[in-house]
Amino acid sequence: MRIENMVKIDGSTANQLLEAFLNSNQTIAKIRNTTYVKMPVTDEVDLLYNQYQYNESPYPLDGKHNLEFAGVWNHATKTIYEPQYSLRSLLENGGEITTVSKEEIESLIEKEVFKRVENYVNENYEPLKQAVTDEMKENHYSIWRTEHIGQSFVEEWSTETMDYFLPDVSIKLEESSFMNYIVGGERRSQVIDEFEKQYHEKYGEKLGLYIMEFEAVNSKLQEIQNDPTNPMHKQKKIIKIMKDQDCQTVNLTINKNNTLFTFKTTASPLKYFGRYISTYHIQAQDRRKFEQLFGRHESYTLDDIAKITYGKRVLYQDEKLLPQTEISTLASIKAKGIRSNQNQTLEGRGHREDIER
């Protein structure tokens, strides 16, 4: 069968011609300057190839150009897997045909394998935990450090399930597995079974350790939740407040080394969890004063923050870090210079605070 080298024939678009060819029993068709060839793999699956001819030719194929892989067509599901550009450009205007990339298939398999692993862990929870030996505990490196637990609390990670504790599934399909998945049925199930087997071979002995991490982390998170004096509550409050604000810069007062200092900074670093906040975001003039007060390579933390203001609004203040005269004041403090008594402590009240910029 030959389809003339035209965009439309009897009102049909190139897209419609391609769909008609794929759904037909024909094995070769020419659409515009491209010839498409179907090579059967099974009764339902064909390999698709194409040959682009730069010059018009009355023949569907010629010996001057190579046949190139264009995709895999499944008649039953009306799906083209891993479509190449020549097919994608024809199908992008809609139609009944679905396209699925190799990466999308890999993602689907990863989700299915991970779901199976989760079910296995839930069904064998206690036996897996009991199988953990002291030697296994000693040799296990856990990524869950104190800062990660704090970040989990502040950013409200979903630690209530095992998702955060089990290693991810990472899959790269080889050609044979790719084709078996497309064929479907028992061959697809075997592909998923094989990747699940590989996961258990790699991580199976550690599943009990991941369960223990899950329990330990959630226990620690509950301790933080039940302790209102834990500094993580302050950090969580500041980050939430700042994420709710539509502001580029704020005035920030910190209490560092028992010294108050107010400066202008961009708001972005206050919206995310971190152990230290760099002075990079501080306005240049204020940054130099910060370095004179605290040292050139010093930073500050969310725990150091005494007050945040935006314009005349006080967004946040920590009364424990402010002198009584500063509490609930709508004007923020601006340091205009470093005076001779700048390093005196708050206890002596010798450090004079300047008026808001």
From TrEMBL:
It comes from the Bacteria. This is Uncharacterized protein.
